[in-house]
Amino acid sequence: MILVVLSGRRTVAQQDTTYVKDYSRRITYRTYLSHKFNSLQVRSSAAGDDLRYRPNGRINYGVGASLRKFTLNIGVSIPFLNNDNDRKGRTRYLDAQANIYGTKQASNLFLQVFKGYHITSHTKAMLGWDGPTEFPYRPDLLQYNIGLSSLRILNHRRFSYRAGFNQDAIQLRSQGTWLVGGYLTAYVIRADSSLIPARLRDQFPATADVKGASYFDLGPMVGYAYTHVMGRKWFATASGAIGGGGSVQVSLHEGAPGGHTKSRAGVGWHSQFRVALGYNTSGRYIGAVFSQEHIGYLQRAGERFTWDVGVVRIVYAQRFRERPTSVERGTRWLQRKKNDVLPGQ
Predict the structure, then answer these.
(1) pTM of the predicted model as reported, rounded to 2 decimal places
(2) Is residue 85 classed exposed, middle or buried when 0-12, 13-18 and 19+ CB atoms within 10 A define those classes?
(3) Is 71 helix (H, G, I), strand (E, B) or coil?
């Protein structure tokens, strides 16, 4: 079971009601199908020789509710849609991603631990591998990452991220905004032997003996987002941001017992892409949402290491005009407790 709790502070920022209609004081229920994903790729300096690993992803069904900027979603795996271990191998994982959309700020937090990857860029015949799975499979490959990216919405009075991505507002008229912010990530990968299969090592001279690595990076980001509204009911939102900064790279190499490490300072980059489209009225929301973070590092000999994390979600949400008195009392109590802990907010 996957549990994600998102919360945001009550903001004093006022939005232009001719552009954005706020429904956060209503209860919004949602059901959804989602697929969270990640991948890692070693890019060779020679064209066409990239090596890509993916975990065996899962399709989840979930339910959730939102009220006064508080959102709770619970999702579970759908067994009959995820019965492909014989093709791709088994992946054990912890995957927690939270997208927090406030009036002025849009943030993405993620924590992932995955063990068991299959190779999608090469076949078993190309690598000279044998095994019961259809794809080349490495049960020893373990990765975990934790990260944060956050963007300030400069035109927050007339543009709403929540309308497309959190289903508790409506964008009434087309509008765009510039975005500024930054990112901070840590990524670790480990394996029992080199990440590069034996037949490919000549194509990756700088990383042929690397069996693990740790990357730490941070930097600024800038971007732009735009929502196109058709007939005040249909909408399409696209958002993109890119940034770059310094990184610390620690690689673990084969050799002596336990291997040996090398550390270097390098350059990293971070890009983010989000899309939401669908039907949005005062009573209901039907839409599709896509969000992806892509992170990369420049390595020696022109090679690059990149990874990504993201989610695809299909959502049906229903807003209720009235809410029970007990819920109203409960939300007021939560608000008072929050103000006691965070005075002046």
Answers:
(1) 0.82
(2) middle
(3) strand
Record the tokens describing residue 203, joined without a space: 């194509």
Eight-state DSSP code of residue 135? S
Calculate the alpha carbon distances from 186 to 27, 215, 238, 275 in Å. Answer: 36, 6, 27, 25
| Per-chain mean pLDDT for the chain | 85
Q: How far apart are CA 239 and CA 224, in angstroms?
A: 6
Q: How far, in Å, CA of 251 to CA of 214, rounded?
A: 6
Q: What is the 3-state secondary structure (H, E, C) of 121-132?
A: CCCHHHHCCCCC
CATH number of 2-341: 2.40.128
Report residue 204's pLDDT band, with 50, 70 and 90 as the boundaries: confident
Cβ count near 155 (within 10 Å): 14
pLDDT in tens, 118-146: 999 999 999 999 889 999 999 999 999 99
Give, as one character, the DSSP assignment of residue 44.
P
Q: Please list the residues that pair with 18 across neighbouring strands.
A: none
Residue 180 has a pLDDT of 98
